[in-house]
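Review session, final week

We close the course with one last complete record, chosen because it touches almost every idea we covered. It is Deoxyribose-phosphate aldolase, a protein from Streptomyces malaysiensis subsp. samsunensis with 295 residues. Go through it on your own first, then we will talk.
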Amino acid sequence: MSISVSDLVTVRSRHPEAIAEAAARRVRRPLIGDSGRLMIVAADHPARGSLAVGGHKLAMANRVDLLERLCMALSRPGVDGVLATADILEDLLLLGALDGKVVMGSMNRGGLAGASFELDDRFTGHRPQDIERLRFDAGKLLLRIDYEDAGSLTTMVTTARAIDDMAERRLPVFVEPFISRRTGGKVVNDLSAEAVTKSIAIASGLAGTSAYTWLKVPVTEDADEMAAVMETSTLPAVLLGGDVGKSPQDQEEAYEKWRKALGLPTVQGLVVGRSLLYPAEGSVETAVDTAVGLL
């Protein structure tokens, strides 16, 4: 798909109402389709200032390139939908790329990568009322907990209330929990089995109901430990992709980890971004098709 910046800018500047009109006429579908599995492409990284892929610091900064990659991924068989912030989802709406797709709005983007306030992760993206108004299908939020950073408590409280607000609207919300710590000034997520287990237990108990809560979880460092880790909760879960490394071998190892974890009872699918949109080797089509094949 060839995307024209001038066309998008013309619509945005002269007919901003076109976004709401496109959202109103979008053809919707159930969250879980005929396959019984969920394959979502994620592109909410830029709004947190996370633009790097592998060794390229600004890989995701070219919006047209990103949109072209997203449109390609969404066109592949077995891809159910997309997770992104308002600006990206609205571009995709104007491009007509979201009909019959699951659309997930990214909710808290205030914890900017590298900021002193990174763990006080405010809800600066989609609100529950926005997701409802735009007829989107679900929301996603990130919950990083550092036992040494009081900002994590603020994030926990606002996360719980956001889950309540989504549940009142009967909208699914995907909670991505981590136990995190600062190492050399950088926030690092602990992917040990114990840490992922704790994060799942904490996230599962948030808010006044868990009826509409899904978990978005990483694969542990040792993929063989995922079976015990996922016994921590009965909530449905999807696996996140994360940064799978810079080499084709790293990518293959990530695929193998996903394949093992996808056989577990609570794991319902994948939500993967950079590793499919900017694969270490090969095309977007090949990377996406490989991931779909794992399901």
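Two points worth writing down before the exam:
Residues 5-293 form a domain with the TIM Barrel fold (CATH 3.20.20.70).
The chain is about 35% helix and 20% strand.
Good luck, everyone.
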